[in-house]
Design goal:
- With about 250 residues, the protein is an alpha/beta fold.
- The protein has one domain (about 5-250): TIM Barrel (Alpha-Beta Barrel).
- About 45% of the residues lie in helices and about 15% in strands.
- The protein has 11 helices and 8 strands.
- It has an 8-stranded parallel barrel, surrounded by 5 helices.
- The longest helix is centred in the last third of the chain and has 19 residues, at about 180-200.
- The radius of gyration is 17 Å and the shape is globular.
- The protein binds 1,3-dihydroxyacetonephosphate (13P).
- The site of 1,3-dihydroxyacetonephosphate (13P) has 14 residues, from strand 8.
């Protein structure tokens, strides 16, 4: 049985005070109510990592980073290594987010190097894939996602130490969610692709999250799909009430 993940990607949002308040209320909720088989996961900005991992120490919360360097350690001003993240008890790290692909020109081969570095330090990559609007409209969604998977995972052996997030670019921050059927079609394709490359068991255990305008109003119908194992949530994860609402919705599935 795969867990359901409610993963918040805060991106470059929230002040220190707001992050502190969020973690205080989340800890209170997780300690008093718990989430059963639902895994709460937050990917905050690096500067709030200690706040985040302190909360994780006292609760069932898991923590992810939003980015990692492709290098081990050394003279790389402004970068954060997988070694540093691992020393702070960070468990997960996003790689291949479309904002990093588009705004910071990250290529599939750079993402591949980052995944290798994360695995070296025993962090679990959350590999983000997804097509643009024009790629979807020209019927190329499947081809684009398969191409990203094959290049980002080239020469990488996985075994229960990867998570994938399908995030159609046209649904991110636009208020336009993929329909549950559109999302399920790609999720199923991703699971089949993983099964062909790594075997049925790895595919059956692989968490595949959906991201793109997920909120408390549309989460339940997305989670009802057999191959959608959670949400990677931007805007709606910034508010503690909305985040807790989504944990509760996931628990009812
Ligand atoms: P939104 O939920 O704000 O659309 O962002 C999705 C996302 O990019 C999560 O990584």
């Amino acid at each position: 049985m795969r867990k359901i993940y409610i993963a918040g990607n805060w991106k470059m949002n929230l002040t220190f005070q707001a992050a502190d308040d969020f973690f205080f209320h989340l800890a209170e909720y997780l300690q008093s109510t718990g989430t059963g088989d639902v895994q709460a996961l937050i990917c905050p900005p690096f500067t709030y990592m200690e706040l985040a991992t302190d909360t994780a120490d006292q609760t069932s919360l898991s923590i992810g980073a939003q980015n990692v360097s492709q290098y081990d350690n050394g003279a790389f001003t402004g970068e954060i290594s997988a070694d540093i993240l691992s020393s702070m008890d960070v468990e997960y790290c996003l790689v291949g987010h479309s904002e990093r692909r588009q705004i910071f020109q990250e290529s599939d081969s750079l993402i591949n190097q980052k995944i290798q570095k994360l695995r070296k330090y025993f962090l679990i990559p959350i590999l983000c894939v997804g097509e643009s609007l024009s790629e979807r409209e020209s019927g190329k969604a499947v081809e684009v996602v398969q191409n990203q998977l094959s290049k980002c995972l080239e020469s990488i052996e996985i075994d229960n130490d990867l998570m994938i997030a399908y995030e159609p670019v046209w649904a991110i921050g636009t208020g336009k969610t993929a329909s549950p059927q559109q999302a399920e079609e790609i999720h199923k394709m991703i699971r089949d692709w993983i099964a062909a490359k790594y075997g049925e068991q790895v595919a059956a255990d692989l968490p595949i999250l959906y991201g793109g305008s997920v909120n408390p109003a549309n989460l339940a119908e997305l989670l009802a799909q057999p191959d959608i194992d959670g949400g990677l949530i931007g805007g709606a994860s910034l508010d503690i009430e909305s985040y807790i609402k989504m944990l509760k919705i996931a628990q009812k599935i």
